[in-house]
Design a protein that fits this description.
By secondary structure, this protein is of the alpha/beta class. Helix 1 crosses helix 9 and helix 4 runs parallel beside helix 6. The protein is built from 9 helices and 7 strands, in the order E-H-E-H-E-H-E-H-E-H-H-E-H-H-H-E. Helices cover 46% and strands 16% of the residues.
Amino acid sequence: MRKIVLLTGIMGGFGKKILDTFIKDNYFVIGTYAKNARKAKELVGRYTSKNLEIYQMDQRNLENVSRVTQKIILDYPVIDVLILNAGITRDSFIFNMTENNWSEVIDTNLLGAIQVAKNIFPVMRRNKFGRIIIMSSVSGVYGREGQVNYSLSKGGLIGLSQLLGSMVDLNEDIIVNTLAPGMIKTEMLDMSNQKNVNQFLKACCAKRVGDTSDVAELTRFLASKSNCYSQNTLFQIDGGFMKC
């Protein structure tokens, strides 16, 4: 039987690569996106209805998140894999951040993700199987002065992963892990300050930015039944950032 994966943030750099990787592995992917329905339809056009279905969901709006995830559960009572990937940045120095800078990032990256997990986790417990992969960031591990809101939201996701993992009973084959990518070649990196990129490269053993395939391949393993012993683990995909 085909496994079903729910992937939030399907339109971003990570989302598109993870989508492609999982469809090639014969998963059925349920994807969510926040806006730009035209581009979402273009993305769907690359696949078939046998491989992919998408739902529009604004993670800044918890009522909308709850309504959409409940609709997904009605349509797909068994969800094998949950990948909490949706996220945005609104970078600025802490004293220059507006209230909107804070609320948009915290609501989207953290509170929206918690709401999705709150609805999907009981489904996995009922089915006694699931793989949950939460996309954090090295910014959530080490913190960055120019993106305190983003660092806070991503650090909170690490806490969410630890909480969910600790709630799993012995008779439930549910594994929860967190990924913390460093600088990966995506549209988000293209918007980064070159000074920040150079600082990352200086502190990175690999001396290069990562590729979305690096993230997608590890996500694929963590979603598989072969991953049965890495509960509550934080995987850094950062080229050895801060280790040299």
